[in-house]
Structures are given as structure tokens and as C-alpha cells.
Specification:
The protein has 153 residues and is mostly helical. It has one domain: Orthogonal Bundle (Arc Repressor Mutant, subunit A), CATH 1.10.10. Helix content is 48%, strand content 10%. The chain has 5 helices and 2 strands, in the order ααααββα. The protein has helices spanning 19-29, 50-60, 69-76, 80-92, 118-148; strands spanning 96-103, 106-113. It has a two-stranded antiparallel ribbon. β1 (96-103) and β2 form a beta hairpin.
Length: 153
């Protein structure tokens, strides 16, 4: 699975004091929650939606805990495919770790915020963006050389 993030011009949300307001704008800006998202479920607002609750209640609200897809589906009253769809978006952002989770008497694959700390997890996102931008730069330079007809490109 590749790395994918929306990068948009933005200002820090530090003046905002409501965690839900900050989270909703942030999660929309990075592309986890699509702009104009309609939950298409019993949820009346985005804050009640599965992707928002998955991130805020489960992953950010319990950063020390790993969750299996089954546990997440049960908590969020949704299906495993829906849980996996949203987990995969967070994995594309490189924010999640896969961890072993005790489920009854067995260990199963689970997920949590990388390192149990969103700030540390974000370091991975920044590194991925830097690498992607460096690769774009190399491609742009190569394209410019080819457009000039530089035979040594």
C-alpha cells in the first residue's frame, strides 16, 4: 500500500479550543474525511460517523490500546469491511502500527496510532511527504531536461 495524503495550504488550528473542531478540519485537510462527506448511515453529523469515531474515540482516545477489526466493528456498530476501508485510509497516511492484540485466549492482528503517540506518528507522515516532494523535484528536473532536448538526461 502506498503513501497518500492531501497537502493543502492551511494555517495552524492553534487558536481553536474545541478538539472536535480541530480534528474535523485536520482530518478533512489531510484527506482522511472527504470534503462534503455524507455518512450515509444513522449518523446525523460527521462527528457521529464511523471514520470520525474510529479516529477520535478508538485510536486517539485510547492511543495505548491496539484494536482488532472485529473489536472496532463491534464498538462502532458497523461491519468489518467498513472498518477496514477506514483503517486503510489511515494506513495510507502512515499513521497506524500493526500490533498483536489479545482477543480472548488468542493473539490477533490489531491496529493503533503509531508509537501510541500522534505527534510521533506524524513524523512518519512528514518524512513521506519530504521523500515524495524530492521525487517530484527529480521528475520535474528530468522533464525540463527532456523538453529542452538535452541528450544526456
Amino acid at each position: 500500500m502506498g503513501f497518500e495524503i492531501n497537502v493543502v495550504s492551511n494555517t495552524p488550528l492553534t487558536p481553536l479550543k474545541d478538539v472536535d473542531d480541530v480534528a474535523l478540519i485536520f482530518l478533512t485537510n489531510v484527506g482522511y474525511i472527504p470534503k462534503g462527506y455524507d455518512p450515509k448511515t444513522d449518523a446525523k453529523t460527521i462527528k457521529q460517523s464511523v471514520p470520525y469515531r474510529l479516529f477520535m474515540e478508538c485510536f486517539l482516545g485510547r492511543v495505548e490500546r491496539g484494536w482488532t477489526a472485529e473489536q472496532l466493528a463491534t464498538k462502532l456498530k458497523t461491519t468489518k469491511p467498513t472498518v477496514y476501508r477506514h483503517i486503510n485510509k489511515l494506513k495510507e497516511l502512515d499513521l497506524l502500527d500493526e500490533v498483536e492484540v489479545k482477543d480472548g485466549s488468542t493473539m490477533r492482528k490489531g491496529y493503533r496510532i503509531r508509537y501510541g503517540d500522534l505527534t510521533k506518528a506524524w513524523n512518519f507522515v512528514e518524512s513521506n511527504v519530504e521523500i515524495a516532494m524530492e521525487n517530484y523535484r527529480k521528475t520535474v528536473e528530468h522533464l525540463q531536461e527532456l523538453a529542452r532536448g538535452d541528450k544526456h538526461a
